[in-house]
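Long-time lurker, first post. I've been practising inverse folding by hand and with some scripts of my own, and I keep getting stuck on stretches where the structure tokens seem ambiguous. Below is the full token string for one chain I'm working on. Before anyone asks, I'm not after the true native sequence, just a reasonable design that respects the backbone. If someone could post their per-position residues I'd love to compare against what I wrote down in my notebook.
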């Protein structure tokens, strides 16, 4: 991912999903759910310009404002 990668997010209650592309990413998708501690269970996958399928599973802790 790079500054050229654009994400288009949507959210409904505790579910967040997005489609993304740009830079070295041909097409990517993510879907996340908010956990009880306000972290995000955030698996995502994409295909890059080399044709590689990348799959990542992350628990993300968003920063407070």
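-- Answer (accepted) --
I ran through it position by position. Result:
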């Amino acid at each position: 991912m790079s500054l050229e990668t654009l994400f288009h997010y949507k959210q409904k209650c505790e579910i967040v999903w997005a489609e993304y592309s740009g830079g070295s990413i041909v097409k990517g998708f993510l879907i996340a759910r908010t956990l009880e501690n306000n972290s995000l269970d955030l698996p995502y996958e994409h295909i890059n310009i080399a044709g590689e399928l990348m799959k990542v599973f992350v628990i993300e802790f968003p920063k407070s404002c």
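A couple of notes from the structure itself: The chain has a mean pLDDT of 89. Residues 19 and 29 are 5 Å apart (CA to CA). Happy to go over any region you disagree with.
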